[in-house]
Amino acid sequence: MKAIPPSIIVPGHPDFHMLLDIADDIFGRAGGQRELAAWFPKMLRDAVDEVVDTPRTRRRSYEELEKTEKTYLGTKIEILTRAKLNLPKGRLDFVVRNRDVDLKFTIGNNWMIPKEAVGHVCLVAAIDEAKSQCFLGLVVAHAANLTSGANRDAKKSLSSVGFQQIYWLLNAVPCPQNFWRTLPPALVDDVFSGQSGNDRIVTLFAGVLDRPVARRIIEEAGGDQQDFMRRIRSDKKRSTLGARDRLRQQKILLLHGKKDAALIRVLGLPPTTQSEFISHAVTPAERHICAQRGWSVP
Known about the structure:
Elements: H1 16-30, H2 33-52, H3 54-57, H4 67-85, E1 94-96, E2 99-106, E3 112-113, E4 121-128, E5 133-140, E6 156-157, H5 160-163, E7 167-174, H6 185-192, H7 197-207, E8 213-214, H8 215-222, H9 243-249, E9 252-256, H10 261-266, E10 276-281, H11 287-292
Parallel strand pairs: 2-4
Antiparallel strand pairs: 1-2, 3-6, 4-5, 5-7, 8-10, 9-10
Helix pairs in contact: 2-4, 6-7, 7-9
């Protein structure tokens, strides 16, 4: 997202009261601005990652999507937003305080405004992947706020003046990163080239040490929708070792954020939630500490 200029939507601006009214309704439906700020970034992250679908496609970014997938992603975000805010569908995407509102999403520097939205309020949403930030604002798509040129679909974008006309609901709010995009491409290829779910999980946790990893990421790596967590457990009843046993053979502990919280703290590892795991290569000086807490390391 390009540099955001200060908004001039303040008392005295002709659009101020209308946008404030719509914003108040959106905040109220979301459960408050804090709740919106907690829900919106995660919703965007999950929606984008589900369409990019790194585990099955090896793609790691929005830019690699097909045009039809980008269109579907915008529709998906519209549907999720409408459901969260319990808004009725109108001539455009939503009706808020008896006004038609169109939602526009981008992972670029601007939004494309179709002819049918000109003159109406737009709810503009964006992710800045480079800075791990997201944005959500309201703007009236007046002709004066749009560029003079249009694309082949007769869509225009916000002009520099138009960017000043955005009433921000969330401005540069931190957004979770795409986990797979933060890893070296060679490691991602190694993980997903594994022959089994256990192979992929072992490669993942051997390559990503001392960093909390969410259950969703483990599920994606394991590729088992039924019981992907079984692959992690030590399993003495099975002829094949689980991922945790195989990692321990490499002197790497795989710890659960809740069950192993005490050991995680003693080892000085980053805070890890109950829905996360973290792996750690045990040093000779740490072997006694681990043994005291029931973790023997070869």
